[in-house]
Amino acid sequence: xxxxxxxxxxxxxxxxxxxxxxxxxxxxxxxxxxxxxxxxxxxxxxxxxxxxxxxxxxxxxxxxxxxxxxxxxxxxxxxxxxxxxxxxxxxxxxxxxxxxxxxxxxxxxxxxxxxxxxxxxxxxxxxxxxxxxxxxxxxxxxxxxxxxxxxxxxxxxxxxxxxxxxxxxxxxxxxxxxxxxxxxxxxxxxxxxxxxxxxxxxxxxxxxxxxxxxxxxxxxxxxxxxxx
Length: 228
What we know:
Elements: H1 7-53, H2 58-73, H3 76-86, H4 96-122, H5 125-133, H6 138-168, H7 180-191, H8 195-221
Domain ABC transmembrane type-1: 28-216
Main location: membrane
Transmembrane segments: 12-29, 36-56, 76-104, 169-188, 194-219
């Protein structure tokens, strides 16, 4: 007997777990795709919001700040439902996966914009002046001098938000995206055994989070650029 199960029952659980593993891994693939797509959108939009909010013109900075605050202060599910159910009323119909990735990207772009802002402010003004003295145009100086230094400082924070996005991917199940947790739930619905698939899904998420956390720690231990 082991945990109240006979050897035969325990053996049967292992066989069932092995049989559903390929299905769960396909759900994991969708989870990874949604995480990467959502993070890519958030990274690009977050940088754009950070630049717009830092603009010297109020007509540019204030709308960017309002949009960023709205995205940060409203729940992800509300934004997801709006994109999936409201936009079709205006003739905009997006695939479920794209809707989910866009919702994740919009939500986290507001958080990443503050991360970018902190990183850019940590780069001294002298770096901008040095880039101009070398004959670089402002855009080129930002791209090749300022932004790389800022990214080195905020890489750990970006990694933490990548982990957070992966944990929010299960919310996309409300628009019928078959990610890992939703696949495990469907298996439980059809076999009346929720313990095995949900436990496996939890362990897979744990391994994924630990791997991301290890990557973040490696980035944190990298030498940081000297602060002026």
